[in-house]
Amino acid sequence: MNDEKGVCNTGKFAMVSSASPHFGEEPPLVGQNGSGTVFFTNCNLLCSFCQNHDISHNADGVEIRDDDLADLMIRLQEMGCHNINLVTPSHVVPQIITALEKAIRRGLSIPLVYNTSCYDNIETLKFLDGIIDIYMPDLKFFSAEIARKTCNAVNYPDVARKAVIEMHRQVGNLIFNKRGIAQKGLLIRHLVMPGQLNDTREIIKFIVNEISPLTHVNIMPQYRPFGNLYHFPEFNRRLTNDEYEEAMNIAKDEGLVNLFL
Q1: Which residues share a beta bridge with 190?
Q2: For the chain, what percentages of helix, strand and coil (3-state, to nearest 5) are there?
Q3: Cβ atoms of residues 194 and 223 within 8 Å
Q4: What's this model's pTM, rounded to 2 decimal places?
């Protein structure tokens, strides 16, 4: 692997912003001891509204060698974390795989969570088949125009649809142990955008009709107008309570069963 850097501003080694037990994730990941999150620096989607702008856009993190990344995973397991939660991993899959080989030899055995924006190459996902236990994509939008305005990624809806279908093919619906901790499966996030409830409805229809109505989905209300959005005033405001309630009603009306409340 050479050290050339591209759009994701990442070379031979991954960059990590932080690694620690995290208690702000979905309950089946957090349990009693937390989700062992590893926040990777930089991103392959670069949403203009990203709440982690310093990490994703400004490369706030440190370069970490594969041995040290393996050590981080082992340390999180020793702290009692229920899983290793790889946050924004899409652009550092080769580095993750190399580190995992080392970590598994050292005893890593807890589930691996692939926590992604859903802008994932199908061939990369197929390579991860049998490695990743839990896929947690943030299925953001189905409108190519929204994707163009906010991420300059007009192909995002098509890429994301294919990615989620492949993820579900690999791991199926979410499975829990006796303590209610997720062990394997698909958990979808959807960040509701202001004024875009029609887009939310299309996403829910897709999940119900092309994935499974039993899919566990977290419909998230925490959109904030971070970043450079002054060119698009329709996105330069917070989500209202009424919009979020309507998004939840849409999900129920369309037949989605397992919603995080």
Answers
A1: 219
A2: 40, 20, 45
A3: yes
A4: 0.92
